[in-house]
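Researcher: Last one for today. Full complex below.
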Amino acid sequence: MQPESLIAQLQITANAFVAITKELELNKVLQSIADSARLVANSKYAALGIVNEQGVITSFITSGLSKEEREAIGDLPRGHGMLGILIKEGRPLRVHDISKDPRRHGFPPNHPMMTSLLGVPVSIQGNIVGDLYLTDKIGKPEFDDEDEWWLNLFARQAAIAIVNARLYNETRQAQLQAQTLAELTGSLNQFTQPLELFQQISKATCRLLDLPSAAVFLLDEKADRFPLQTGIGLRNNNPEDVFLPINGSIAGQVLLKGAPIAVPDLSQLAELFVPYLGSGQLPHSALVVPIKQYGKINGVIEAYSNTSRNFTISEIALLEAFAANATLALEKAQLFEQKEEFLSMTAHDLRAPLTAIKMSIGLLSASLPENFPPLLLQLVGNISRNSQRLDNLLEDLLDLNRLEHGNVQLKLAHLEVGEIIASVVSTLTPLFEEKSQKLIFIPSEQKYRLLADQRRMEQILVNLLVNANKYSPEGGKVEISLEQGKEGRVNIKISDDGPGIPFEEQGMIFNRFYRRPVHEQGTKISGSGMGLPITRNLVELHGGKIWVESEPGQGSTFFVQLPLESPNLP
Ligand code: ADP
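Model: Here's the assembly. Have a good evening.
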């Protein structure tokens, strides 16, 4: 080679090196390799085939063909002809005229005619990642030794660029997956009912692996099967009808193996039981990971694909990690359920002896002799008051449970809001007087009629007024008034000049058992944190809304907005 042409060739090759390392996105890198390769050995066409670890071509990129010609060729060559030789033998190949070469497998229809060929393997550290071949040397009848030398040099650099791009893509994908995993794990925390949680787990599994269907099965050891809990994209989602037998399902094998199992082609394992998809067909591939609780497998998450899918190691690890997080959420939901059950059972069980105590103490109080010692009288009074308090607490607990489970029926009647407020205010006035507080009802000229449950409406008002009384200092003022709300609604407003509630806690006080820190409320005020949740549930059961506006040190105003029964009457 002449020095001038050597320098020119070096320049071309160096430019090609720069071009293929400019991009990081795999498809762009591959296209850039095919385009640059043509310049390196001056050819009309170039093609780059990428193979997976099994030597199967997974991408095929061409350069120099028109869009129509490329489309006419089709997707991936099978690598039976000369392409196959390059991949399998891993050594360069030069052909004077491919159309006449006995080793050729034949061009696909609509393939442009090609004559000379130069192909080199693309390999790194002895591993073949693909092959690169050029066809139709420009200006000469065929490729020569020098072309082969330069293309080989370029192919080595191309292999590095491919590996880099793959690593970059894998890292980016892992980052995205970690993000999705965190997001989906977070989404599980809001569910306290196991069934809703299973639904979310199935949905999240589909999103995580970009699949149409997934399901959760829990182990029933006595019945030797995994009954369905819930699934997405299944033909039959009825837990009663769908189960996986331990003997004869992938879930059963996962139980034995203690590790995930991926099945790329389920038709090869016809004897294994899998549920039908929504399309009425059986899934083509499946990935099954165990749900481990306290070190023991007690269920599985199954992910199904309706097409052939080779689950990668990182996908399997991803679903495994998600299953571990889902297990924690499941444990939380199960504990929550147990706590609910325990609370309502305990409340029920305490009721009977408490009623007996209350009755006995009532009888005792009524039949005490006149000369009963004052100290003992005080003790009887204590028992009587505290058993009543305990009874109220149990009643609240049961009431809240019933409300939260939708087990409360309203006894609806035609009511006028002003009248109910007036009656509650008159009942509670002595309570306010005990703390030298003023309870002021500002009546409205307008009548606001509701279809509501009288006892429950009174309960709403009593809860809010008793709180205003409890949390406001001696000598404070509490006002209750009415105003027309928007769209046929009425607002009941209860304002106090108590300690107020910081903005960040204004939503939380309506949650069950939430109480503001004692030290911030001034004095130690007893309570159970059930009053406002009960109130909120009752307001919502009446089709209304409740909220608070407040600033620390500026008092609080609670609003109860309720729908009116009909247009206001004068
Ligand atoms: P309890 O009064 O039994 O603690 P509630 O559910 O009725 O339970 O109230 C929850 C919390 O909201 C109370 O602990 C208190 O911190 C706060 N709160 C309720 N009403 C008021 C009010 N009028 N002023 C200031 N804080 C209030």
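Residues 3-170 form a domain with the Beta-Lactamase fold (CATH 3.30.450.40). Residues 467-468, 471, 496, 498-499, 501, 509, 514-516, 521, 527-533, 556 surround adenosine-5'-diphosphate (CB under 6 Å).
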